[in-house]
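From the shared-data thread, chain only:
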Amino acid sequence: MQLKELLKEIEYTLVGGETAQGAGEPAGGELPETDISAVIMDSRKVCGGCLFVCIKGAAFDGHAFAEEAARAGAACLVVDQDVDAEAIRRAAGEAGRGILIVRVENSRYALACISAAWFGHPARELTTIGITGTKGKTTTTYMVKSILERTGHKVGLIGTIEAIVGDKTYPAPNTTPESYIVQKYFREMADAGCDCVVMEASSQGFMLHRTAGFVFDYGIFTNIERDHIGPNEHRDFEHYLECKKMLLKQCRVGIVNRDDPHFEQIIEGHTCELETYGLSPEADLRAEDMQLVSGQGTLGISYHVKGLMDFPVEVDIPGKFSVYNSLTAIAICRHFAVAPEDIIAALKDIRVKGRVELIKVSDDFTLMIDYAHNAMALESLLTTLREYNPHRLVPVFGCGGNRARDRRFEMGEVAGNLADLTIITSDNPRNEDPQAIIDDIKTGIGKTDGKYIEIIDRKEAIRYAIEHGEPGDIIICAGKGHETYQEINGVKHDMDERVLIAEILEEL
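Structure, as tokens:
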């Protein structure tokens, strides 16, 4: 593909350089004809004739490898910092070719636009749905996929658990992948016959321009709470909110939770057509007449949709957050003219791996797996489950090693205040001593009157919970969720809680 086509939608300046044929151009001049063989952002993968985008990351800065990329045969460098153009040209000369250097304002943003062009702007062939928010993104994406596929749509998905492209699945190292990967997935989806895609759009994704280069047809803002604030994420809540708000400037129709306390801040400056959902009478799509549903080891909730649509819904996932998640999915699928009966049937059958995932082990008590891995998530989950008036709430959890110690104290204190019995175990100890992590959790519980036991082996901890389950108990295996491994001393060992539970039941 020609370089001019890749840079067509980007403002740039030609800093200098020359093509392999020696057709040099002065700084600020027009780009000469240059054929690009690949778009690369990893200096280790540079190949002859490629365009290398220099990106500054947390650990490495691509600008530091500019000369190395030139020496490896790159045809063009895209930079957003000053580089030694003369040294880069000499390095290219060693490879027997010339090189062009293009300066942009932000190389991450440029990468997104270049990637979209490289793959032929595949988002234009799909109906794109982006979901952002502190909670609810993952569950809602699967709900939307389930509902739309029931009515004949072929839906791609990009999210925290995995990316689903036709019959293929890819593991997800990030909630929102790098922009090049997003566009690559979009192209694969379009080529596989998908007509739409639903994806989780994280605050980091917006901050790092991973979702740039296209406009979402529908953008959904589920909620926002204080999370992801720290030296490696967002400097404060305001910055976190500003990043998430970017969705409402990058979509055609924005659908926002009217009940969120920050609603007015969320919609400030939006450029899209706006719709709302929630429990508020001011919401365009509302949930009314909520009822808790329980029986024979299962939990759920029912309600009636009012406003823009009118029908009853029952979801076999407990809690008020299930109302919001399913209502969000309904608000999206309404735009696809999905019939109420199809929405009702799809939501009744929905299951999301590791998100309040009910595992049937007994008619007498309930057991579930959930990803709650910080104090806020655990508190929300236990508070929700307390509404079902269980005989006992029994969380089984640990905390990850090489992460903030405060999380351990906080989760311990939450469990001590809200649970009837806490079973402290190991999560991903990474390079820390599992017992030291457990001791920190115990310090948090020690601030309360909560009862606890400690069983360092996670399978044995779950076994204890099942063997000692009492009628009416709700047991929560928290923290691992969809993960299928346990990381110890830098090695990921296979460990899927669903498999552990099946093995325990067979052994019992």
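The radius of gyration is 25 Å.
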